[in-house]
Specification:
2 copies of one chain form a homodimer. Chain A is an alpha+beta fold. Helix content of chain A is 25%, strand content 27%. Chain A is elongated and about 65 Å long. The relative contact order of chain A is 0.16. The C terminus of chain A is likely disordered. Chains A and B meet through strand 1, strand 5 and strand 6 of A and strand 1, strand 5 and strand 6 of B. Strand 1 of chain A pairs antiparallel with strand 1 of chain B. Chain A binds a DNA duplex through helix 4.
DNA sequence: GCAAAAGTGTTATCACTACACCCATGG
DNA sequence: CCATGGGTGTAGTGATAACACTTTTGC
């Protein structure tokens, strides 16, 4: 059996929407595109899928090239395929979104791509349909994090409850009552209190917590209602 | 600007996972594949994406060819792209899932494809990775319908509350208390009681309801908790 | 000793679960 | 008149939201 005849073949790429959190704001890792067309315009990091590569492998390799990281949280967002989304030739793109701890020691941004963390409130225009991809990724992040304990992927392995609250507030652009917030997150049973405190952001210091990995894996897919009806999510 | 050089181009297809409900069971519309390889094996309906077609257009056209229907509920599930998923040559598939009213008058199954409605409990093995696609589609249907008023797409425009309950029970493979069920669905405010009754399934007859289209569109994306934590959904 | 952030408890409301009986009708 | 499925109400429980004061400590 040869090939399917009379059909058009297309380029297939992956693009990565990479979220990070610096303790205050939600950020996106963007690059300045290194080749024509749209050279030097802001862009998501991406790459063509190679003949023997799965999408996941391709996306992980893009992420690895750019950040040096492996094994981080990554999920397929959607396939984008408008016929004219890339003016050069028809290219379908499988978008992946990724959550990483912006301060982790292994993170080493490659110099090759002029990558920068950019606040979601200060996003420049992006090439092709990348702005649309970012919009969809943010929507999905908000949707999913309202129900699943997802945002921990953006924090270091030791974090305080006030830090966690700032993160949720940044993602949903709201404020929460800290008494209710801490009761809710502690009631999930996912957090283990540590003996030491973070003294950087207050004189008194705030206790560190770690995720209980067993429970985290077990409960990841349960509906946890981290945020109750934050607006009108999809 | 010419084309990107040195990259491999691939076939791109769409496959449709088509759900229907016959009043008792959840069903899938499958065809017997009409060409090699795997000719005459059970398969999802699909087709190659044409050079000037978006994925949505391609999927809608596949559905139209097969059922005569237009404008039905359709949503991208995921892109599938393992290098060897199609033994003939590398083909990526964008899977769409669709909900249709199995009894609607416009539904006209094309003879060309030997299409049949098959109960989810009696699924045959499917070609390629289609069984995996079905699994993922069912998971997504359950996930989404637990939170959003999605399953109405499987019913005729006039339906009774007992019919709706049977549908939810079929999707989640559980039984609900009918008092609690009707209170919950009525409390959404999405249903408008009609004056006439369905007398087919009982002597007393059950009142028909219709969706309030305004509220349906407005509330579709709100979190409605149609089903409270049915197991451990993703 | 004071400014700044951490930590904690109570009350009212609401949504959910479990559960049992009467109603309308066709045969 | 009876069998079948339709329709409704209540009480107990658990989760949520609103709300204010005390603790710690670096300066």
């Amino acid at each position: 059996m040869k090939r399917y005849s009379g059909q058009t073949r297309m380029l297939v790429a992956v693009d990565c929407i990479i979220f990070g959190f610096d303790g205050q704001e939600l950020k996106l890792l963007l690059i300045k595109r290194g080749f024509e067309p749209e050279k030097n315009k802001w862009s998501l990091m991406g790459g063509f899928v190679q003949p023997d590569e799965s999408f996941e492998t391709a996306a992980a390799s893009v992420l690895h090239q750019m950040t040096g990281l492996e094994g981080v949280y990554m999920e397929q967002l959607l396939a984008f395929g408008e016929p004219d989304r890339d003016p050069v030739e028809r290219t379908v793109s499988i978008a992946y979104f990724t959550l990483i701890d912006i301060n982790q020691s292994k993170l080493q941004l490659s110099d090759n791509y002029h990558a920068e963390w950019i606040s979601l409130h200060e996003l420049p225009g992006l090439i092709f349909d990348h702005s649309h991809m970012v919009e969809m990724a943010l929507e999905k992040l908000r949707y999913k994090a309202a129900i699943h304990p997802l945002l921990f992927e953006l924090l270091p392995s030791k974090f305080t409850i006030p830090q966690l609250q700032i993160l949720y507030e940044a993602v949903y652009d709201v404020t929460f009552d800290k008494r209710n917030f801490s009761r809710k997150v502690l009631s999930t049973g996912l957090l283990v209190k540590q003996k030491d405190k973070d003294k950087l952001s207050s004189k008194r210091g705030a206790f560190y917590y770690k995720l209980d990995k067993r429970k985290y894996n077990a409960k990841f897919n349960a509906f946890l209602n981290f945020v109750t009806d934050p607006g009108n999510l999809k």
